[in-house]
């Protein structure tokens, strides 16, 4: 492709993206397609001869785009967000254009040093302990795996990297912890049977007494406690584990403490929300995702550690072809995680932080929290609905309740969620809390405004009334 052809289509694509970002709220959120329908429209084999970009782009618009889910829609209230923003999109364009491989300092010095700088910015913005050092991973799942692997090596004096496991090591986490903890434990060789899921209180936060009891029982059995994973902002309900009490226990028994704040970590930019992180000084590692609630394109996970030497020692490997003359003077981030190859993720984060500034990010987070509180008030003010968990941030867990049995309430709320989502006008997800089917509404899209939350309530209430008062036949 020559320069002029590239330029022509580049302008065309930017125009398309600009229009998409402007008009995303006009689309049906989830595509109305059946499994396999998209695949049937595509050739079974790659073309023998190259095709023009006009044809390819047209097929994208006709065959691919109609099957996409619109995560940036203002009425996207599902899961936790995977936000983007115009400055982040433009930075991704530059990253893709350069095609840099940022595995070590020498392969892209500016990438390595910019990553150092933006991680220090984030540490200050979130008021994390000054002694922590950060690195960008791809996702919180990877960051938690990295934490488990480092905890494993510290607990075994780095022998498990050399000789493998000699004795079982035990991991402790909330019964509400993200599934990545279990997946990470399996990958890291701990074994599913060596995970302890600690009971939670009425607000779905870990009970410190139950944690210490479990640790003590394992020690009496001759097992070795290795790592506790605490969560600030659980996936199901945004519950806040008490870091200070958990941290004291970890310190008492010399256990690695990893804090998973993938979604909620961004809220620490607000001084009034830092109570959630009381005790963060006990953490050996901490993760949050700028690609969730900080306007940065997926993927970008900010991982911080108290002792980076332990992290590097866990992952470092020195083949001759990767050695350089400046290794002793720089951070080679290939040794700070699992992958050797690394994308230039720091650039989009730098663009976002500079474009919006701390105040712009604070304004967005406060707005989302206020909008979630307004939805919470509507739930609590309705005789047909009930709130199912505290709302410290922007996630509201609720259900329809007409006094039926728990089994019937579960079925009723499943019907309600399906009815709302099938309209294509908004999208939510569900979870279970203590066996109860619960609907989750998370206000965290960059494009969401007051009217979107109000329309969501109106639609939910309308569908609920249809379920509670079915028309006679």
Plain-language structure description:
The protein has helices spanning 3-23, 37-40, 53-64, 86-98, 109-125, 140-155, 160-163, 179-187, 208-220, 243-253, 290-293, 308-315, 345-381, 406-422, 450-468; strands at residues 133-137, 169-174, 195-198, 224-231, 256-260, 285-288, 301-305, 385-387, 395-400, 429-433, 436-442. It has 3 domains: 1-30 and 69-82 and 366-473, Aspartate Aminotransferase, domain 1; 34-67, no CATH class; 100-343, Aspartate Aminotransferase, domain 2. The mean pLDDT is 95. It contains 15 helices and 11 strands. Helices cover 43% and strands 12% of the residues. The protein is globular. It has 473 residues and is an alpha/beta fold. The termini are far apart. Helix 4 (86-98) packs antiparallel against helix 13 (345-381). The chain has a 7-stranded mixed sheet with strand order 1-7-6-5-4-2-3, with helices on both faces. Strands 8-9-11-10 form a 4-stranded antiparallel sheet.
